[in-house]
Amino acid sequence: MTTSPRRLVFASNNPHKLSEIRRMAGDKFHILSLEDIGCHDDIPETSPTIEGNSLIKARWIKEKYGYDCFADDTGLIVDALDGAPGVKSARYAGPDCNPEANMALLLRNMQGIADRRARFRTVVTLIMGEDIEQFTGEVEGEIATERDGCSGFGYDPIFIAAETGMTFAAMDADAKNAISHRGRAIRKLFERLASL
Ligand code: IMP
Question: Whose CA is nearest to atom 2 of ligand 1?
Fold first, then answer.
């Protein structure tokens, strides 16, 4: 007998993230996007922390739409910039969430700085029924001095992963998923789901 995949909403419409996560979900879970459930809300990310914003997004979907779901929130944390852009990573250069402008500003702010250590941090919040759990993933690296590669999204062209010495944008999707912040957090999520 075959069992049908479990449906779970991922609180995102980002096509890159959706395809990363659907690759990892395999055929055990059917991942629905916000678009799939007719959610076009501009969910307010008002928390000063990555954990807080991840929780806000998941709660929004559960409370307004009634679905079991998970949401992620990510920040790029640069040591020499006291943790910036951090929780403001999407809007570092202004409210438009423009990745090119964000990268240009970060490269400018890092000019002349020798300590380029940085990490991506993702917090995933899972809400199943009444239960809320969070899963964290991090990847260490450094900020490049110039862009390299054309895969991925966001800051990928200027984030050099310590484990490969390559920017995320120069790695293929599976190689990035294997070591990335989100890959690590999402694998913890799927391990937990498999144990339920
Ligand atoms: P979000 O909370 O996942 O939307 O991430 C906030 C911002 O961090 C995004 O707008 C991207 O600029 C950046 N970001 C998140 N994940 C990645 C990634 O895997 N690679 C590069 N940039 C990312």
Answer: 73
Q: How far does residue 185's CA lie from ligand 1's centre (Å)? A: 14
Query: What pTM, to 2 d.p., does this model score?
Result: 0.93
| Residue 109 neighbours by CB under 8 Å, 6+ apart | 81, 84
Q: Which of 113, 69, 108 is nearest to 92 (CA)?
A: 108
Q: Of 73, 131, 148, 156, which is the active-site residue?
A: 73
Rounded distance, CA 122 to CA 124, Å?
A: 6
**End-to-end Cα spacing for the chain:** 20
Where are the domains positioned within the chain?
Answer: 6-195
Q: How far is the CA of 153 from the centre of ligand 1 (A)?
A: 7
Q: For residue 73, indicate whether it is catalytic.
A: yes
Other beta carbons within 10 angstroms of residue 46's beta carbon come to 8
Walk along the chain (196 residues) in steps of 10 and give the mean pLDDT of each run: 80 87 83 96 94 97 96 97 97 93 98 98 96 98 97 96 98 93 94 85
CATH of range 6-195; options 3.90.950.10, 3.40.630.30, 3.40.50.150, 3.10.50.40: 3.90.950.10
The angle at the Cα of 194, spanning 192 to 196, to the nearest 5 degrees, equals 75
CA-nearest of 144, 149, 145 to 159 is: 144
Beta carbons of 122 and 72 less than 8 angstroms apart: yes
